[in-house]
Design brief:
The structure is a homodimer. Chain A is built from twelve helices and 15 strands. Chain A is of the alpha/beta class. In chain A, the strands form four sheets. Chain A has a seven-stranded mixed β-sheet, sandwiched between helices. Chains A and B meet through helix 6, strand 9, helix 9, strand 11 and helix 10 of A and helix 6, strand 9, helix 9, strand 11 and helix 10 of B.
């Protein structure tokens, strides 16, 4: 008998807790696993020996069901980059001590690109030192920018939220008889996946968003103005979806000075709002979907949550049954329609600190929308709605503390 | 046999189309009603004779079911104030002509305080001129600031969205181990009802939002800082809900100058974010819930939608069966638990251009939260979830055009 540990890292999503549930479920199925520990605040909780015994927290199926549909990370998260252990191994030694102290033989780290750096370094350290502890990464990020995997848990729920919300904003934008432009800024630092996913509304015959701009395309304010004017010939209320990672380009400043004398850069959405007002002069509004994109579990994708649970469960099997370590769990898509995926593993060195961009060939020729291939890629990921439990009219969240 | 007309006015909500459905259902039940017309863009559609025949649009129960759960106004809206007809009756004459041309004997106007001004003036004009056309107001607004009625359709759904979203933001704000302040700015120009409604999370044991500020209370930045510091003694992630109508007070400017040289006032949330950073120095974030508050039908309150339909239906009955005119339909609450309301009418002159503030006695002594009486008032309004129809993973909206 031995124990295992799991931790969550990076920005929140609506599906990380589902992957945590999956790791727990996977470990429960392995007879040789005794305790299942959750570390608080990612790898920091391992370094500082702050572990929770998950068997005493997830008492029954109902607890697990609630956890599946609770957004963000019940264990907390961190933004912590391990140093190169050849230069400074102090944190590595603390980690090894924590694992040794609690007889932990496998560690599962749920996170994105940066977190996979931790998996890679820990695996390298343990291998070098001859310490037999399996380290397996479980992907998550709403940005969908992790390499080797078809997509990442958390992305489908974010995409479903963006689509449902954008559809409502479209309805809202059409009420008055005057022409208008509504600009919706969507998360995704350097990769445009989430903004691109707003194209799914097309599947239901919705022509909006009429324009979609991604960091992977070229963007120029002049071209944008022309695109909007063209769209205005057909649509009274023009809807623009733009990835936060799009830059307004050379020589264009989005600097703002507030009443406190603080200078900061506005988001591209706010910048475009002012730019559009200046150059077109109609009613213009910009909307930031903000953190709601990453935590709106009340409109999560059931496909996403079930896949997140499954990939967490498979991670445990791959480590404990097949002896995998230094890998990240991946989805490999077999077909779009019917949608079928299998779960595989990939060498962590191919993933850590890499970034998967939205394919250039899925951007249309005009650089202001995406192709039907993109639509077919996105659609399966947003299917299905989890059954939520409500109390007093509000979804119940699984909470550890206040 | 005669015809009736209905129009929608003011800002969108998730429940206006439910009231439209209710007017339609009510008219269908009256044997003397032939056609049921919907005017485009509120009273402007009556003035300009732009009418849609709703019987040819709402063909069956399925259409009506979809319309019930479609946000915003399918007929479009307007912000149009009729002139005093003693001074200029040109629009009134056009309205009377449209009604006469189409044999319309009753007009139902779904809107807020400003729209009730139209109901009042039209009723006064028709009475004076001896024209027998009933004019009845049907309330709607997410602001809940209409007098004479216990609450307004649209408010409950907005409150449910705010509560569900705030709960998710609370989860999101708690992931890192550092202290933080999250400020959520909530709609409500001069009345704090919607921001106050965020207290409903308390019913599920959630202590956040820890601080709630309303325009009906006094607000000073110094007092706010002290409140936050007190909250930080107990909570790592402090959550502040603030109504957009709260003013930062005398001598405080929230002026922003952007890269285009435009000057504008930031929202109170953004202003407080910078103020908090300056004076406390921890991680601070402000979030605007923006138009999503008024159009998020995917998390509408079933109670709200059913009441919105019912009050629209009753409006038709009150005009056609009881001969009411120059009135607005009202909810009169009989009890909180069990929740029971009856529908009444009130003289439109008591409502038009008035505003119902959040009760001062429901604000706590410290002026930074609300009382249990407020909680008991809000809770019934957010109960229940409509069954939504999804296609391709996205709720289906009822659409007239693109």
């Amino acid at each position: 008998m031995f124990n295992i540990a799991v931790a969550q890292s990076g920005g929140p999503t609506a599906a990380i807790n589902a992957s945590l549930t999956g790791v727990f479920n996977g470990a429960e199925q392995e007879a040789q696993v005794d305790e299942i520990y959750g570390a608080e605040n990612g790898i920091e909780g391992i370094i500082n020996d702050r572990l929770l015994n998950l068997r005493s927290i997830l008492m029954d199926e109902h607890d697990k069901q609630l956890l599946m549909t609770t957004p963000s990370t019940i264990l907390g998260s961190c933004r912590f980059k391990l140093k190169d252990w050849h230069e400074d191994d102090s944190d590595y030694r603390k980690i090894a001590e924590t694992f040794s102290r609690h007889n932990i033989r496998a560690f599962f780290y749920i996170g994105g690109n940066d977190s996979m750096d931790t998996v890679m370094k820990l695996h390298s350290y343990f291998t070098e030192k001859g310490i037999d502890i399996k380290v397996v990464g479980v992907p998550k990020t709403i940005d969908n920018d992790v390499t080797e995997t078809d997509h990442t848990p958390g992305f489908g729920s974010a995409a479903k939220y963006v689509a449902a919300t954008l559809q409502e904003i479209i309805r809202d934008s059409r009420v008055y008889s005057i022409p208008s432009v509504t600009i919706v800024e969507i998360m995704g630092r350097d990769a445009g996946w989430l903004a691109a996913s707003s194209c799914v509304l097309r599947a239901n015959g919705e022509p909006a968003p009429h324009l979609i701009y991604l960091p992977e395309g070229e963007f120029s304010p002049e071209k944008y103005l022309n695109d909007v004017k063209q769209a205005q010939l057909r649509y009274k209320a023009v809807i623009v979806a733009i990835s936060e990672g799009v830059s307004a380009g050379n020589g264009v400043s989005s600097e703002i000075v507030d009443a406190f004398g603080h200078k900061y850069l506005s988001g591209i959405g706010k910048w475009l709002e002012e730019y559009t007002k200046d150059h077109i002069g109609c009613k213009v509004r910009s909307i930031e979907l903000n953190v709601m994109q990453r935590c709106s579990s009340h409109i999560a994708s059931l496909t996403d949550l079930l896949e997140a649970e499954r990939i967490g469960r498979e991670a445990v099997k791959s480590a404990l049954v097949y002896g995998a370590s230094g890998v990240m769990m991946c989805f490999h898509r077999l077909s779009n329609n019917p949608y079928r995926v299998e779960i595989t593993t990939a060498d962590i060195t191919k993933i850590a600190n890499q970034e998967k961009k939205f394919p250039r060939e899925w951007i249309n020729q005009e650089g202001n929308n995406v192709t039907v291939d993109a639509l077919n890629y996105f659609l399966p990921l947003i299917q299905g709605e989890p059954k939520l439990e409500y109390r007093n009219g509000i979804p119940i969240h699984f909470r550890l503390d206040q």
